[in-house]
Structures are given as structure tokens and as C-alpha cells.
Design the sequence.
């Protein structure tokens, strides 16, 4: 089990993973016990600890601001890492397998592979052959509205998923609720396209408007399209979908219009095939069927799950991600602790007389140490909670996630778990930073503080 | 006065190390203080009077000898034991008040009571009694910065008496006050001694302050050199 599995997903997964109950229960009991112990131990002294923070308001504010910003950075980094962990986690049922070219990226398979793959390429003699429960092919068409190559930029370029419109709702994530009329419009008008809202805005196109694209990955292929719908807000804001029949019909008609010459991409137009299977054993059987089939040798193909596909894609970023996880985050936590250590050290030095007075009044070394730790803990917990709460409510609740379009990922969001790990990280880093200053406070000698010639 | 002294200091020596040099601050000093007595300690700078006060208050340990307060030999207690002992037995009044600036007068006086197993209501009762004894019940919400020097010292005295300690020790309690405030503080200490039968040991440089005590001990170079008794008309009793 991942150590930082998002809490709300863990709760949702409880019916399938009853063992999570133990972890959840243990965590909640430990947290409740800790809070109870803190409240019981410090309830009488809370006023003193709280008011001590206002002794030097500027120092307290700066320490809080440091914890706030550092917890914010840790929250954002962990949210991204956690998101990637989730998308790379293998599902056990209702899997989607991806078939791509084995030795080349991007895949450029012949369109003839499509039908065979969608049937699962079963061996004729195999009575236990697996067939996908559903499938979808993707061809990528990229074009630009700008005829002058020198003026082409991201604002006038658009890439389409060329696919069967009837597969949009069952197979495309987050498009299950798409208006059926848009699908019908794409079927009726082969040149009809659905565009993401950000792309429509940059191209300055609305529903009903037509435009012409110069092909980028299909050289010399000019296609005219009509916008028949805008995709829902979310992960497809920068994307677009076209009817694959339009692309394939154009490729088929190419020799007639070009002296019998096939288009250069005619035999390389299939980029991805998605296959849905019921469970992991079915996937493994299907993958074996495809990889060992003689139908897919030139080029050879590979079959992997979406999560392992993403993992492969992210493999080149692995070092960066590992660096973030094991170097950057610990460095931030250590920095946080050092900032607190510095602030608390100065505070303890300034308050030696106060510590000595407390000792005179009967406060033992342990209590004085606890006061210093308590002040640091209060700053850390409050600042950490404020930071994580702000990140969660602004990014997840208000903005609906921050758009970070990588490999068709949806927006990254800050999970609700940040509301407990934020104060925990802030509190623990503050505790760690205040350890030695608290030790110093404990050792204040009354006779030395009040020593004078007398 | 009862026969058995409440404070007994027996042949105490106290020395400090300053680098390789050993400095003898107290040299075989002995004294006894009786219940309800107001004792002043005087002497030139370096005579050891503050050191002696610290030993009696359990803030330091003698290098040799013993210190008894009541029936407890405090010179053998650990730091933790002394802290717990001080809460109930010692009330300390500082020259510079040493109130916690972020807390109100009420909260400053309440500080020692937080160490005792008292409810909030019981603590409030005792704090108000102490503040009324020093005539500052109308200033409970004021922070030290909002009080005059004399008022701050009275809060300091209230803090010292709030736990009803066996002994009140005062280290130059009027050293930072003007003459009028000093007079008020000394009158207050005399009143505590007379009305509440408190035992008070006060270190002072000021002969006028020492005159308020029943007995004055003079120290010099770590030894007791003389003792003065107050005149009958100056005596408290």
C-alpha cells in the first residue's frame, strides 16, 4: 500500500480493500490520542504558550510565513507525485489495454492492424481466446490554419484524435456524458469536429464555423472542417476529435488525385488501439495473443495497460520525479526545520530571564522545554493547516484543479488529504527545528541568569 | 516566636569556578530564621548576600554545608524536586519585578497556581485574594507595560504570595522604585509579615529598607560579621 495514498480514495476503495480499514482506524486512533494528550497536557498553559507567540510579532509572522510557503511547495509537489502514482497504479478490473508499435514512438502502424487488433487477434485453435469487450482506434491528424510556415505557432496549430465517433462516450475518459447530438453531428457530417474550449478560443472558432487546416504530420493534406460541438471543460480543453472516416477516405482517394501515388502516411496512419478487457487475467491472455500473433510483425507491436503505458511515457522523467521525491522534498523539510530552529533559538536567548523566572516559580526543566516545543508546534500546525487549506480550496474547489497538460492527463488537483498532512508536516518540521533550542531553554541556570555582584 | 527556626543554614560554603580560579563566595556561614520573622541581609557588593538568598530559596546548591527549610533539607534535593518544592514553599520577589510582559496581571499572578492541582475556579479565588491583598484587584486585565513600577512590584508580590508559601524572599525589592513606591512596598511587606505571619528574608542595600526588618544581618566577604535587632518602637510586634 502506498504510504501517502489519498485519504478519500482510500475511503472509496474500502469495499474492495477491507484491509485499509485497519490502517484508517489505526491512523485515526493515533491522531485522536495525540490530540487528546496535547490538549490534556497543555490546556492550562495554552494561554501562556499562545500569548508568547506575540512577544515578537514580526518574528512569529516571518516564521509562520516561512512554514506557510514551504508547506505550500511540499503540498503541490506531493499532489503531483501522488497523482502520478495513482495513474500508474494498475487496476484489477475493467482494464484498458493500449497497443502501440514496439520499437518506435510515435507509433505508425498500418490501418489494417486496426480490425485484427479490435478482435483481439485470437488464435483460431485456442478455445480460451479472449476478445476485448470494447475497443477504439486513434489516428492523429495535426494541422495548422496558417499557410505561411514562418507564422505557424501553438495558437494556430491543432491536433485531432481521429476515431470512430460512436466510441467517444464508451471509451474516452470523462466524456461519458457527452451530448449524443454532437456524436450524431459527427456521423452525419464526416468533416464535423469537436474542439476543446481553449483550442476553439485560440483558433477563434465557434460551433457552425468552418476552417481549413494544412496537414503537418500528413504533408500536403489540406482538410476542411466544421465545428459541430465544444468538448466539456477539463482534460480535453486543448484537444480535438474528428471522424476517422474523413481521414481514411482522404487517404483512400489520394492515389486517384495524385497519379496513382499513395500518400506517404497511407500505411502508417494507425497510432494507437485501445482494447477494454474484464480483468487482469483477461488482459494478460489478450496481450499474449497480440504479441505472439503473426499478423503484427512489420511493424511489431506491444500491448500494455494504460497505467504501464503512462509509466513508460514517464520513464524519461523518472530521475526528475525521484529527485523531487527524495531530494527536493526532504531539502524543503530540512530548510523549514532550520528556519524554525533559528527563530526559536533567538527567542530562547532573548527570554533566558523569563525562563529563569519560570524556574524560580517552580516550573521544572521539562515543562520549560515543553513550552518552547509547544510554541513551535503551534506555529507549525497553524501555518501548515492554513497553507494546505488554501492550496486545497483555491486549486481543487475553486479552480477545479490546475491545468498541467501532459500526455492527456486531466488537471492536477490537491487532494483533501492535504488538510491533514499540511499541519502534520508543518508541526513535525517545527518540532524538529525547535528540539535543540528547547534543550537550551531547559538548561537555563537561575543562578547564572540572576547572578550579580551581591 | 516558636523555638524551632523555620530556616536553618549550617556552615555553608559556596564557591564558583572562573576559569582556573576558585572564588569563595560564602565561607562557613550559619544562620537561623524564625517563623514570622522579617529579616534583612545587608552587605557591600560581593559579600554573598544574594548567593545566600538563592541558597535559602532553593535556586542554587551549597558547595558544603546544609540548608533546611522547615523539616526539609533542600540542599540535598535534585533540580526537579527543588522546582516542585519552590512552588509551594517559596515566594520570590525580584528587584526588577520580572513579570511576563505578554500576560496580564491576573495571568502573571496565576502562573504559580498552574502547577498545583486546582480547578480554574479555585485558581481565580486565590489570584483575586492575592491581588486584593496588594490593592490591585482593579488592574487584573492590565499588562505590565500598562502598570507603574510600584504597581508591577505589587503584582510581583501578589505572585509571590498566591501559593501561600512558607517563605518569602525578596532580592532588593525596592531597588528599582522611587522613594514613594519603595515606601509602599516595604509597608506591604511589613503588613504581610504582621497580618499573615509570613517569614520574609530581604536582601537590600538600602539602610532605610533594612530598618523595616526586625533583624538585620551584615555580611562581608562571605561571612556573617554582625547582627542588628530593630528598636522596640520599630519592631513589628
Sequence:
Amino acid at each position: 500500500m502506498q504510504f501517502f495514498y489519498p485519504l478519500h480514495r482510500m475511503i472509496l476503495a474500502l469495499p474492495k480493500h477491507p484491509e485499509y480499514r485497519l490502517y484508517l482506524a489505526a491512523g485515526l486512533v493515533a491522531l485522536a490520542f495525540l490530540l487528546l494528550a496535547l490538549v490534556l497536557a497543555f490546556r492550562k498553559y495554552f494561554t501562556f504558550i499562545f500569548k508568547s507567540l506575540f512577544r515578537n510579532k514580526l518574528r512569529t509572522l516571518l516564521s509562520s510565513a516561512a512554514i506557510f510557503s514551504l508547506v505550500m511547495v511540499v503540498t503541490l509537489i506531493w499532489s503531483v507525485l501522488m497523482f502520478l502514482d495513482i495513474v500508474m497504479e494498475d487496476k484489477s478490473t475493467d482494464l484498458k489495454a493500449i497497443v502501440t508499435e514496439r520499437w518506435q514512438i510515435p507509433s505508425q502502424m498500418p490501418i489494417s492492424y486496426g480490425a485484427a487488433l479490435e478482435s483481439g487477434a485470437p488464435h483460431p485453435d485456442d478455445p480460451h481466446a479472449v476478445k476485448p469487450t470494447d475497443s477504439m482506434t486513434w489516428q492523429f491528424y495535426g494541422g495548422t490554419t496558417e499557410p505561411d510556415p514562418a507564422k505557424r505557432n501553438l495558437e494556430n496549430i491543432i491536433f485531432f484524435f481521429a476515431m470512430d465517433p460512436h466510441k467517444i462516450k464508451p471509451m474516452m475518459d470523462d466524456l461519458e456524458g457527452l451530448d449524443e447530438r454532437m456524436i450524431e453531428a459527427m456521423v452525419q457530417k464526416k468533416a464535423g469536429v469537436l474542439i476543446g474550449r481553449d483550442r476553439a478560443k485560440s483558433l477563434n472558432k465557434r460551433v457552425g464555423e468552418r476552417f481549413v487546416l494544412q496537414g503537418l504530420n500528413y504533408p500536403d493534406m489540406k482538410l476542411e472542417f466544421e465545428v459541430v460541438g465544444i468538448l466539456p471543460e477539463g482534460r480535453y480543453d486543448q484537444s480535438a476529435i474528428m471522424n476517422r472516416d474523413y481521414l481514411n477516405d482522404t487517404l483512400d482517394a489520394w492515389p486517384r488525385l495524385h497519379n496513382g501515388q499513395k500518400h506517404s502516411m497511407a500505411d502508417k496512419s494507425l497510432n494507437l488501439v485501445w482494447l477494454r478487457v474484464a480483468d487482469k487475467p483477461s488482459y494478460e491472455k489478450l496481450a499474449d495473443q497480440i504479441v505472439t500473433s503473426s499478423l503484427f510483425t512489420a511493424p511489431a507491436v506491444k500491448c500494455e495497460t494504460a497505467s504501464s503505458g503512462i509509466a513508460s511515457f514517464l520513464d524519461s522523467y523518472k530521475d526528475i520525479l525521484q529527485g523531487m521525491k527524495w531530494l527536493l522534498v526532504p531539502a524543503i523539510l530540512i530548510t523549514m526545520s532550520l528556519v524554525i530552529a533559528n527563530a526559536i533559538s533567538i527567542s530562547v536567548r532573548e527570554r533566558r530571564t523569563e525562563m529563569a523566572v519560570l524556574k524560580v516559580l517552580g516550573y521544572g526543566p521539562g515543562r520549560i522545554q515543553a513550552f518552547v516545543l509547544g510554541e513551535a508546534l503551534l506555529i507549525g500546525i497553524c501555518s501548515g493547516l492554513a497553507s494546505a487549506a488554501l492550496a486545497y480550496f483555491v486549486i481543487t474547489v475553486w479552480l477545479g484543479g490546475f491545468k498541467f497538460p501532459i500526455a492527456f492527463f486531466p488537471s492536477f488537483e490537491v487532494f483533501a488529504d492535504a488538510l491533514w498532512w499540511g499541519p502534520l508536516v508543518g508541526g513535525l518540521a517545527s518540532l524538529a527545528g525547535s528540539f535543540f533550542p528547547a534543550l537550551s531553554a531547559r538548561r537555563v541556570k537561575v543562578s547564572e541568569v540572576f547572578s550579580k555582584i551581591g | 516566636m516558636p523555638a524551632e527556626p523555620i530556616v536553618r543554614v549550617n556552615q555553608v560554603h559556596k564557591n564558583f569556578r572562573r576559569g582556573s580560579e576558585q572564588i569563595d563566595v560564602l565561607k562557613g556561614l550559619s544562620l537561623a530564621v524564625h517563623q514570622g520573622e522579617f529579616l534583612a541581609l545587608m552587605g557591600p557588593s560581593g559579600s554573598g548576600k544574594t548567593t545566600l538568598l538563592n541558597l535559602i530559596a532553593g535556586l542554587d546548591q551549597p558547595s558544603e554545608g546544609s540548608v533546611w527549610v522547615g523539616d526539609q533539607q533542600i540542599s540535598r534535593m535534585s533540580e526537579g524536586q527543588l522546582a516542585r518544592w519552590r512552588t509551594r514553599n517559596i515566594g520570590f520577589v525580584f528587584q526588577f519585578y520580572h513579570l511576563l510582559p505578554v500576560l496580564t496581571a491576573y495571568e502573571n499572578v496565576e502562573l504559580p497556581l498552574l502547577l498545583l492541582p486546582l480547578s480554574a475556579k479555585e485558581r481565580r479565588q486565590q489570584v483575586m485574594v492575592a491581588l486584593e491583598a496588594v490593592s490591585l484587584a482593579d488592574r487584573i486585565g492590565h499588562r505590565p507595560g500598562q502598570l507603574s513600577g510600584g504597581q508591577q512590584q505589587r503584582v510581583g508580590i501578589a505572585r509571590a504570595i498566591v501559593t501561600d508559601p512558607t517563605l518569602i524572599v525578596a532580592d532588593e525589592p525596592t531597588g528599582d522604585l522611587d522613594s514613594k513606591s519603595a515606601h509602599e512596598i516595604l509597608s506591604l511587606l511589613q503588613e504581610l509579615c504582621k497580618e499573615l505571619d509570613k517569614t520574609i528574608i530581604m536582601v537590600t542595600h538600602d539602610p532605610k529598607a533594612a530598618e523595616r526588618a526586625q533583624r538585620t544581618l551584615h555580611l562581608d566577604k562571605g561571612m556573617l560579621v554582625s547582627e542588628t535587632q530593630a528598636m522596640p518602637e520599630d519592631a513589628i510586634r
